[in-house]
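Deliverable D5.2: sample structural annotation.
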Amino acid sequence: MGPDEWHPHVHVARPEYEGLLYWLHRFVSAPLSGDSLLLRGVLPPRGDRSEPRVALWDGQDLASSVAFDISITDTEGEPFVPLTHILVLRRLAADYLNGRPGAFTGTDGFNIPVHDLRQRYRDVAGECRPTIGDALGVPLQALTAYTQDWENCALWGFVLVDQATGRYYARVPHGEGTEITVGVDLRLRDDEGRPRDQVGMLDVYLPSLAHDRDLTRFQVADGDGYCDMVCDLTEFISGLGE
């Protein structure tokens, strides 16, 4: 049975929905932002509801729960960049806590009040901008997602170097049976100084560069005591699609 045949009631592109699940799952135990709302659930599309539903609560009292019907595509039908979901839900959570809940449509089977925010979701998506912390986290999502598939390197740490640069540490092969720790620098802001919502395909390029022993051509002098070599990939790896 193919993926599209798993459930006849699901009418949503699998990659976009899987991306939503992956990017949101960590907020089960950490607030979406400085407010108190945690993720209670990501509820799949079903029947005439073709897009997902996200449930939030305060982490203490289930009676605090609220659910939002959201969109995973923009007005043109294009899927949102994964980080967009975090940015938009952060805004909608703040709106809800400030008394702007959106259109109430009833309660679901878990007795959670539901609000249809699909159009609001699309509108807010165009207004939301990532922080530098968001930009720092984007490569980590990819790196931690694909670490198990890497044969030639492994994520070993990370740090925000300055307001425009993230350094991602990796263990890579170095000679017969040995490894070194390499710090890879990425640019976290675009040419206009705005934090990026896509920071580049480090998960794709790093294993290839490590396998080909090609990282040394990017080596720069640096006093970083946390690694054996620093490589500046800020020009080599730009934002996705650039």
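Annotation notes: The radius of gyration is 20 Å. DSSP finds five helices and ten strands in the chain.
The annotation will be released with the project's public dataset once the embargo ends.
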